[in-house]
Each structure stands twice: as structure tokens, then as C-alpha cells.
Amino acid sequence: MDRLRILKPPASESRPKAASTTRPRPRDSVVKTRRKHRSARKKNVIFCPTQESYSCQLSLLILLHTRSYGTLRPIRQDDSQRSIEFDYTTLPRASERISFGGLLEALCYRGGVARLPYLEALEESLVDALQLLHSHSISFPVSAEEIEFSRRWGDNWGDLKSLRLFFPHNKEASWASDRLPPTWKADQLSSARSIFFIPKLLVRLGDSSGPTLLDLATQQALTAYLKENPTFHHDLYCLGVAPMTAELAHQMAHNLAIRNKTEKSRQVLESFFGGPMPLPEPGTSPHTICEVFSDLRARAIESGEHRSSSTALGQDLKPKLLLDSPALVTRFICCRAKVASLLRDPDRKQWWLTAMDLYDAFLSSQEPSSVLERICAFDLLHYRDRST
């Protein structure tokens, strides 16, 4: 009993103590917070595969940062692990990072902005940065994916100072060596300028009040750009291109149709063929249909609309204005069928049946390259099911 009395505390001591007014933070919360911060910092680390790459990446980041170019700011490095920890403190407060595609998309919806000098200033900033790196024997290949921009929220898009060039991590950067071609500096500067070629062209087309003649190479580049960016509104800037290659006309009609720009798509089609496209009679052979529309295009080229500019056409451009590809005729008919559907045209079923017959004849051996071709390949509208 004496032993139990010793082990048992007095009644007065068993009472709970009053709660403290200052409650210390639990130790485990502090540890978790520190771990969270450490793991967040680990995300902003560049690990270089070689010592040469490590010294190059560190040098170019320091060089760009000290010359006030927007880039990753190195805050510490580990020579043994060839790692560079960085942060984004070079970005202005309350700012956003914009990809090159995001910049182009934003320019689609900005009216009354002096966009050409806007783009030219950014181009010169990129070229100046490359020349700085070249002067320190650093090779820095760039493409639209290797550059970004930053701007503060609420800044005016028309102000050239509101947008800054921003260089993210470029894995392809390296010290200049004999492995590079002798013209590597000129090649990289040319590549940098080519990034802004199509955007500046689109701005000029949008500002033009009359027909614009473009050479074959420019129209081919424009076609490729519109194919890669079908949801952008840049095709509206190209309506004044005349004469237009078959590839460019189709890409514009296609993009406008899938964005439900019905009247604009029909405008492109009728301009290309010199008038409304005639609906082929049921049972007409695919080859006959191709001949009919090829002839329509040839007569449109010879019409007064294009005759005034025919003397200025390059010899390489003239053949590309013609429609001599059954596959391309099929794609034009697909666009016309889509327009008919959007307009709720009574002949829309026959347009789609014609498009499906042409697809079976000329494109069925390859995978569908667009949503319109998928409709034909799999009869997604079930027009053939209803006709049987």
C-alpha cells in the first residue's frame, strides 16, 4: 500500500493545468513545412549531363541575367552534381509567362494595336541576345518553342515595353566547337528571324486593303502555319491573298468551316472556283467530278479577276494555282459539304454522299487527315445508312 501511495500522485497534482495563452507550433508541422519547401525548391533545378554543359548553362544564365534579359536567375550551384538551382525573380511582380503560340493567339483578338512594330521590337531583342551569346562563344539554337514572353497583368498590349522576351532553359545550348558548321552564327540568327516571319506577314495581310500577291514559298509557309493552328483566326487575314494556291485555299476553307465561319468559308470556295460550286448529279463518276472542278478552277484563273496580276506571277507559282489533284478535289468537296450542313442546305446529304464517293476512290488507302475526312471514312452522319 505504501508503494502504491508513492506511485499515485496527490489529488491536487492530478488536476489539469490551465491552458497556456501562447500555444507553440507543433514540431511535426514545422518539419512538414520545411520538407514541403525543400521539395518545391528541388523542382527548380537544372541537372547537366556533362561538365561542359554545366559550365555553359551557368555562364549563359549569368550573362543574360546581368545584361537584364529575362531568364532563369541562378541562386546556387553544385559543382559536384553539376546542378543549377534557379528562381523566377527576374519576372516582374504579378506577371504571366506567355508562349509564342499564346502571343499569336492573343494578337488575334486585339484590335487597334500597332502590332508590326510590336513584333519587330521583340525580334530585335531576340537577335541582340543571340549576338551577345555568340560573342562569348555560346551556341544557342532557338525555335518558337525555346522562347517565351512575360508581361504584367493589366498592362496595355499596345505598349511595346509591356512585353519582355524571356529565355527558359535551352537544352541545346553549348560552347562553340568544331562540331558546329562554319556558318552557325548566321544560321541561328536567320532561324531567330524566321520565327517572326509568319506573324509579321499576317499583320501586313490584315492591314492591307486590297489583293496581295504572294510568291509560292510564302504561300506554302502560310499553308503549313494555318494547318498547325486551325483554331486561330489568322486565316481571316489571308482573305485578300490573290491569286491563291489550291493548297492555301483548301486550308483556309477547311479552317473556317470547322470553326463554323460558314459565309467566310463559302466565300473562299466561290472565289477559288469563280462562282458557286455546282452539285454533281447522283451517280457521276469520281473521275468526271474531278475533271469538272479542275476545269472550273482553270477558267477562274483565266478570268478577269486574275488576268491583271498574271504577268507578275512566278513560273513556279502558276502550276500550283491549278487544281490537278483528285485528293485535293475530294477535300474541297468535303469543305463544301460541311458548309451545306452548317447552312442546313436541302442538298447537304447529296454533298456528303458525293464527298464519301470521292473519299472511297482517292483517299481510302490512307488514314483520315481531318475531322471532315473522318466523317467520310466512317459515315459518321449515317447518310449511307439512310439511303439503303
Mean pLDDT: 86
Q: State which percent range the strand residues make up.
A: 5-15%
Number of H/I helices: 17
Main sheet: strand order: 2-8-7-5
Judged by helices, strands and strand pairing, the structural class is alpha+beta
What is the makeup of the main sheet? 4 strands, mixed
Low-confidence region ranges: 1-8
Order of helices and strands: HHEHEEEEHHEEEEHHHHHHHHHHHH
The radius of gyration is: 32 Å
Task: Considering the chains and any ligands shown, give keywords for the structure.
alpha+beta, 52% helix, 17 helices
Can you put this structure into words, describing what you see?
The chain is α+β, with helices and mostly antiparallel strands and 388 residues long. It is built from 17 helices and nine strands. The model is unreliable at 1-8 (pLDDT under 50).
Write the layout of secondary structure elements.
Elements: H1 2-7, H2 27-43, E1 45-47, H3 51-66, E2 70-71, E3 73-78, E4 83-87, E5 95-99, H4 100-108, H5 115-135, E6 138-139, E7 148-152, E8 163-167, E9 174-175, H6 184-195, H7 197-207, H8 216-228, H9 246-258, H10 262-273, H11 286-302, H12 304-307, H13 318-321, H14 326-342, H15 348-362, H16 371-378, H17 383-387
Parallel strand pairs: 2-8
Antiparallel strand pairs: 1-4, 3-4, 5-7, 6-9, 7-8
Short note summarizing the structure:
The chain is of the alpha+beta class. It has 17 helices and 9 strands.
